[in-house]
Structures are given as C-alpha cells and as structure tokens.
Automatic annotation (TrEMBL):
This is Leucine Rich Repeat family protein. Residues 695-707 have a biased composition (Basic residues). It comes from the Eukaryota. Residues 672-694 have a biased composition (Basic and acidic residues). The lineage of its organism: Eukaryota, Sar, Alveolata, Ciliophora, Intramacronucleata. Residues 651-671 have a biased composition (Low complexity). InterPro entries: Leu-rich_rpt, LRR-containing. Residues 651-707 are annotated as: Disordered.
Length: 707
C-alpha cells in the first residue's frame, strides 16, 4: 500500500515559504548541489522536515500503516523519534513502540545503519520480517539487537538462526517481552532448539533474553545442555517460561560462567537445592528468583549456598516467594556471612516485625546498601529497628503499614546520614500532622535526592515543597560532578592514546595479512596443479579398487561358507554343553545333600562337646571341695600333734609313767587312723583326675568315627 500525500486545501504563502526554507537548509547540508540531494527529499516536501534516515523510515511506515504523508505527521514522527533517541549516544538507535512493519525494516536494512545497538521492540514485525532482519545483520555491525514483543515464532527464528550463528559481532540478543507490551514472541520448545543451536555455534554472544516464550521444561533442558559447551554467555534472562525444577537444574548445573541469571516466575518450588549449584559457580553476581514460591525451606538451601559460594553474589531478588519470618531468619545468617551481597529485594513476602528483628541485628555488620521491603507487614516497630545501618543508601518500604512514628524516626536517622540518598514510602499511613517535621529534616539534609511519599495523607503543597528540596539537592550533587568529569576526561585521553597505539598495531597486522593473502593465492595455484596430478592418480587407483572389490566378493563367499560350518559346529557344541550342564546339576544336588548331612553331624558333635565341658566343670568343683576338706583335716592333725606334745611333757613330769604311755598310745592310734583316711582321700582325688584325662580322648575318637 503506497502512502497517500496530503495536499493543503489552500497553498498559502506561509506553507510555500516553509518548504523553500527547508529546501535551502537541505541544500546547504549537502554542499549546495541539488544533484547531491537524496531522492527521498524530492518525492515529497513533507520529508524535508526529517533527516535522511527518518525520512526513509517515515515513508516506509506510511506504506505499512496506510497513513497519509504530511508535514504535520512528519513532525510528529520526528518528535517521537527524538524523544527516544539521544545525541549523547550516537551508537544507539531506538525504534521501539513506533508501529513499524516489514517495509520499515527493509528500509532500515537498506540504509546500512552505523549504530551498534538497535532496539526494535514492541513493533509488528512478525515472521514475515525475518528476511529483512537477515539483511540488517549482513549490512551492519550490530552488537545489541532487541526484537522483544514482535510476534516472532520458532518458524521465523529458524529462518535467521544460521545468520545468527555465523555473526561474529553480535553480543546481545533480546527475544523476550518489553515491559507493558501486549505483544509477545512465541518461540516454544522448537524455538528452544534453535537457541541451543545458537549457543553451540556462536561463541561471541554474551547476553540472551528469552522471558515469556513458553519454552517449558524440555526446552530448558536443551538450553542447559548447550550452556555446557558455551563459555561466552554471561547474562541469561529466561524468566516466566514454566521451566520447573528439571529445566532449571540443567541450566544451573551447566551455566558455570554466568554472571547474571533471571529465573523468575518458573514454578521452582522449595525442593530445588541451590546449595550445590552456588558452590560450583564462581562467577554469578546477580540472581533473580522472584515469584517462585520457594518458601522458608527453599530459602534455607539458598542461604547455605550463599554462605559457601566463592564468587560473591552482589544482587538477590526474592520478591513474592512467601519466605515469611522463618525464611528471613535463615537468610539473615547468610547476609551476615556474605562479604559481597549489597542489593536485596524481599518485598511481598508476609514479613512482620518478628522477622525484621533478625535482619536488623545483622544489617550493621553487612554490606547491604539497597534494600526493598515493600508490601510487607512492617509497621512502625520495623522502621525503628532499621535505624542502625550507616552504609545503607536506598530503602523501599511502600505499602508496608508505616505510620507517623516509624516514618519520622527513620527520617530523623537518615537526616544525620551522609550515604542515604533514596527512600520510597508510598501508600502508607503518614498523615499531615508531620508535614512540618518532614520539611525541616530534609531542608537540612543535602544528600537525599529521592523521597517518594505519594499515596499518603500529605497535602499537595507539602509534596511540591519536597520536590523542590530534592531538586536543590540534585543540583548540589551535579555541581560536585565536574571534578569527577575532568578526571574522567584525562583518563579517556590516556585510553585514546592506547587505542591509537592499538590502531597502529592493527594497520601493521593488516599489511601482514595482505602479504599472507598473496602467498595464499600462490598456494592456491600450486594446489590446482597438484589437484590435476591427483586426478590422474585417482583414475589408476579406481581401476585397482575395482579389482580389489572383485577379490573381496570372492573372499566374502568363502567367509559365508565357513560361517555356515561354524554355525553347525556351534549347535553341536551347544548340545554337548547342555548335556554337561544337566550332569553338573545332578552332581551339584548330591553335593548339597552331603553338605547338609555334614552340618547336621557337626551340630551333634558340638552338643556332645558342650556336655563334656559341663561334666568337666562339675568334677573340677568336686575336687576343689575335697581339697578344701583335706586342708581342714591337715589343720586338725597339726592341732592333735601339738596336744600330743603337751601330753608327752606332762607324762614325763608325772610319776605314773605307765599310764601316760598308754594314753599316748591311744592318741597315736587315733592320729594314725586319720592319716590313713587322708591318704585314702588323696588317692581318690588322684584317680578322678586320671579319669578326666582319659574322657576327652575317648570323645575325640568317637567324633572322628562319626565324621
């Protein structure tokens, strides 16, 4: 569809003067020669309002949308273009949300843009524009390409994937969704295969954004396996793709070189163990896990990983994960141990003052500078507990039930701080009673440059006054910047010298490359000559190969005959083997029966030995008793002998020696009888011992006979 030209109803002098003035300006810009003027400016005077690139894009957009070409529309297009593009960044071309279509992209590709960053997000390109994207990649040195929210499917991606794989300048590719856009890309599982192919082939790309593309678990596994061989990718955003645990674990396991990773809205659940993955990753600096329903258990695994991680995580986003006070208690220990974590977002997690108490205890000894606690159940008590961190710079407590007391206590605290610059307290219970105190505190503070208190019961006059004070602080801050800028200029000049030296080296290397190319051409000529010689040799070899093939066929037939003989002998041997197996089974069964019989006899022998031991113990006890009795008898005989001696002395003293002798004889008889009795007992004991020595020998003989 060609654009329609809008003609003015009345050709006024003002219109003609404006056209003439614009023509003169364009002629001056192109050297004063009308032949140098680009053809686009000769088509319609409305294009004179724009520069050449803007005119080509505006003309093409009118083709896509069917709009009429007019000076008013051209001015509106120029205003839109300049609004999103800045002269401070000449390497960036922003064309997002400008209703561009296929024709516009073709026009852009034909212009061969010099910009290295091109943002085409939130347009209506679709799969039909991929051929124009291929031309754009071929005609430019793009480093950052944004194709988010352009309704591109896996079919369109498949048509440009080879060009993306071969491209050696592309560093960042965005195929996700632009915030606030209703358009989406839909790569799906098949698109994930193409992304895996890109990661396997292109070793230059560093940033990849794929959020909200319905990649699913299987697609996540494909991308994770591709990350295993790709060492260049540093930043990966794959949020809102329903990857679940299997897809995420593959990415975490293989993405060991990632510096930033966005896994938000992927239904992770608390069972995923981040501890193992964070311990192995030494480069990860930023991790986004918002809206994944991790809960306190999932945060526990994450906190253990942060403590043991060696790289040093800088930023962590846990927004909307229902970690509650229990999870914050565990996370506080990790914050205390971490020497690098400086940015933390735990908003929308049902945190109460009980949980903030754990956080407030560790904040003074932590590195946290940016903290987001919005949409929690904080209240004034939490704000008072947070008044102990001197290094914090930014805090967000919006929608957290903060009232006058808590807000004023914290505002008084940051009024004395030299680091705190940003405070958000929107949608709370701050009333107009504290307006004067707020203005007095921030009037004295020249450091804070952002204070957001909208959605409270403060008057419009107070809000305007706050904005003026913040603008004053911003100007003071900007006045301090020139000295920094001067040092930066000196540094850039030094870098420029280094770049010049590098350019000289590069030119020298280019000369060497030209010399190498000359040698290469000579080598190619020599290769052609050798190639002709090789072709003649191949003809002779081909004849020889045919002869060898015939011989091989004959040998194949011989081998087949031998193979048949082998099969027959194999069957016979198999039959013999089966018969031997049957014999072996019979022998094996008999052996098992003999082993069972042997076990039974062994048990009987064990019982007999046990009985013998019991009888031996009884005999030993009886001998011990008899020994004790013998000792008692010996004691009695000794006493009797002493009495006998005494009697003998008395007999010598007495006159009637005969009577004494008779008494002595009688006592001597008694003693002799007792000694005989003792000797008999000893003989019995000696006989029992001999019997005990004989019994084990007999038992062992019986055992041998049984065996």
């Amino acid at each position: 569809m060609r654009p329609q030209t809008a003609k003015p109803k009345l050709a006024t002098n003002e219109y003609t003067k404006e056209i003439e003035f614009l023509k003169q300006q364009k002629l001056i810009a192109y050297g004063g020669d009308p032949s140098n003027l680009p053809q686009i400016f000769q088509k319609n005077p409305a294009f004179l309002v724009l520069d050449e690139l803007q005119a080509e894009l505006f003309n093409a957009r009118c083709h896509d949308t069917g709009e009429t070409v007019s000076i008013e529309r051209a001015k509106i297009f120029k205003e839109e273009f300049n609004k999103i593009n800045s002269k401070k960044f000449p390497d960036v071309l922003n064309l997002y949300s400008m209703r561009l279509g296929v024709t516009t992209l073709i026009a852009l590709a034909n212009q061969k843009p010099i910009q290295t960053t091109i943002n085409l997000a939130d347009n209506t390109l679709g799969d039909y524009a991929v051929h124009a994207i291929k031309t754009l990649l071929a005609n430019s040195q793009i480093k950052n390409l944004n194709l988010a929210s352009n309704m591109i499917s896996h079919i369109g991606l498949g048509q440009i994937i080879d060009d993306l794989c071969k491209n050696q300048t592309l560093k960042a590719l965005d195929l996700g969704v632009l915030d606030g856009s209703i358009r989406k890309n839909a790569l799906g599982f098949e698109g994930a295969k193409h992304i895996a192919q890109l990661l396997l082939s292109n070793k230059k790309i560093e940033t990849l954004r794929l959020q909200d593309n319905v990649i699913t678990t299987a697609g996540g596994e494909f991308i994770g396996q591709a990350l295993k061989t790709n060492q260049s990718i540093k930043h990966l955003k794959i949020a809102e793709n329903d990857l679940k645990i299997a897809g995420i674990e593959t990415i975490l396991l293989n993405g060991q070189n990632l510096e930033s990773l966005d896994l938000s809205k992927n239904n992770l659940r608390p069972t995923i163990k981040f501890q193992e993955y964070l311990m192995n990753n030494r480069t990860l600096k930023r991790l986004n896990l918002e809206f994944n329903d991790l809960g306190p258990k999932g945060v526990e695994y994450l906190a253990n990983g942060i403590i043991q991680q060696q790289s040093g995580l800088i930023s962590l986003n846990l927004r909307g994960n229902q970690i509650r006070d229990e999870g914050l208690q565990v996370l506080s220990a990790a914050i205390y141990e971490s020497e690098s974590l400086s940015e933390l977002d735990i908003s929308l997690n049902d945190i109460t003052p009980d949980g903030i108490r754990y956080l407030a205890d560790v904040l003074p000894n932590s590195q946290i500078k940016v903290l987001n606690l919005s949409k929690n159940l904080l209240g004034d008590e939490s704000m008072i507990m947070l008044c102990n961190n001197r290094i914090m710079e930014k805090l967000d407590v919006s929608s957290s039930r903060v009232a006058d007391q808590g807000f004023m206590t914290f505002l008084t605290f940051i009024g004395e701080s030299t680091n705190f610059t940003h405070l958000k307290a929107n949608d709370n219970y701050i009333s107009e009673k504290v307006e004067k105190l707020i203005l007095e505190i921030i009037e004295k503070n020249q450091v804070i440059i952002d204070l957001q208190v909208t959605g409270n019961r403060l008057s419009l006059c107070c809000l305007n006054r706050i904005q003026k004070i913040l603008q004053r602080n911003q100007k003071i801050l900007e006045e301090k910047e020139p000295s920094k800028i001067r040092t930066e200029i000196y540094r850039l000049k030094y870098e420029q010298k280094k770049i010049q030296i590098a350019k000289d080296k590069l030119s020298q290397q280019e000369k060497e490359i030209l010399q190498i190319e000359d040698k290469k051409s000579q080598v190619i000529v020599e290769m052609e000559r050798i190639k002709q010689q090789e072709q003649s040799k191949r003809a002779g070899l081909q004849e020889r190969i045919t002869d060898l093939l015939n011989q091989i066929e004959k040998k194949k037939k011989i081998i087949e005959d031998k193979q048949a003989d082998f099969e027959r002998s194999k069957q016979l041997k198999q039959q013999e083997l089966d018969a031997q197996r049957n014999d072996y089974q019979v022998v094996y069964q008999k052996r098992k029966e003999l082993e069972q019989e042997f076990e039974r006899l062994q048990k009987e022998l064990d019982t007999q030995e046990q009985k013998f031991k019991d009888e031996q113990f009884k005999l030993e006890d009886a001998i011990a008793e008899k020994k004790a009795k013998g000792e008692e008898i010996e004691k009695q005989t000794a006493q009797l002998r002493e009495e006998l001696m005494k009697l003998q002395k008395q007999q010598f003293e007495q006159n009637n020696q005969a009577e004494k002798e008779q008494q002595i004889q009688q006592q001597q008889q008694v003693i002799n009888e007792k000694e005989e009795k003792a000797e008999n007992d000893k003989q019995l004991e000696q006989g029992n011992k001999n019997d005990e020595k004989l019994k084990p020998k007999k038992a062992t003989k019986k055992g041998k006979k049984k065996k």
